[in-house]
Amino acid sequence: NSLDIIQRENRDLKRIGIMGGTFDPIHYGHLVIAEQIRCEYRLDKILFIPAGNPPHKLNTDVSSSRHRYFMTLLATVTNPFFEVSKIEMEGEEISYTIHTLTKLKKIFSEDVKLFFITGADAICDIENWKDVEILVTMCDFIAATRPGLESPDLEEKIRQLQCKYNSSIRKIDVPALAISSTDIRCRVREGQSIKYLLPESVEYYIYKHGLYR
Ligand code: ATP
Ligand code: MG
């Protein structure tokens, strides 16, 4: 009967979280939000996508995509639900989220529902992202709060976005980890410890390849 079909369809619908970032380097802030959202939203898998040429970081010194891809692989290897995608590493062109999602939708079948995971700081900027009106129809957005970057303005901003784009943007509170890649790069440059801010394998990768010095 029809109820049976609906139940079967629901069970077959795969729920995939897309975690985009520069990951220069990836750290426990990223990993904690991905895992918490995976559990809370019952996602089948989280796909980490290191940005190819992030449009908002064109004028900054970003490590090669190869290094960022390897570090993301190392950091996610112990979680059976985490995977890393090279989808943005292939071209030389600027990697816009809309292009990545379009490609992913083509790769995955109809029975996949995508959830785009970002930090609350990043979501506030979403209206400056390429083709935002189309983008918000392609998947749900889950914005994780980020310590140090929360403000009454931010709450209000997310509420406005929810209204404007019909609630496909949600906020989620995660255990606060005030870790950022910028701070980690800074610490390496100044010879300070980065222990316990990111997986040990990534820490050693950074030293082995002399990154951020
Ligand atoms: P950078 O300092 O170089 O900008 P970052 O730490 O912000 O690095 P990104 O690779 O830019 O890391 O982040 C990818 C996504 O993860 C962004 O949406 C960002 O908001 C989110 N994010 C990063 N760190 C945290 C954290 N500690 N808590 C919550 N969200 C985070
Ligand atoms: Mg950032």
Q: Any key phrases for this structure?
A:
213 residues, alpha/beta, Rossmann fold, six-stranded parallel beta sheet, binds magnesium ion, nucleotide-binding
N-to-C SSE string, H for helix and E for strand: HEHEHEHEHHEHEHH
Distance between the termini: 64 Å
Estimate the mean pLDDT confidence. 89
Helix content: 40-55%
Query: What is the third-level CATH name, the topology?
Result: Rossmann fold
The largest sheet has its strands arranged as 3-2-1-4-5-6
Estimate nothing, just give the exact number of structural domains.
1
User: CATH superfamily assignment?
Assistant: HUPs
Bound ligands, named by name, code or SMILES: adenosine-5'-triphosphate, magnesium ion
**What is the number of helical segments per DSSP (H or I, 4+ residues)?**
9
Do you know the CATH architecture?
A: 3-Layer(aba) Sandwich
Structural class call reads alpha/beta
What would the principal axes of the Cα set say about the shape? globular
The total count of strands amounts to 6
Stretches where pLDDT is under 50 for at least 5 consecutive residues are none
For the record, what CATH class applies? Answer: Alpha Beta
> What is the percentage of strand-forming residues?
15-25%
Largest sheet: 6 strands, parallel
Enzyme class: transferase
EC number: 2.7.7.18
Pathway: Cofactor biosynthesis; NAD(+) biosynthesis; deamido-NAD(+) from nicotinate D-ribonucleotide: step 1/1
Domain Cytidyltransferase-like: 18-187
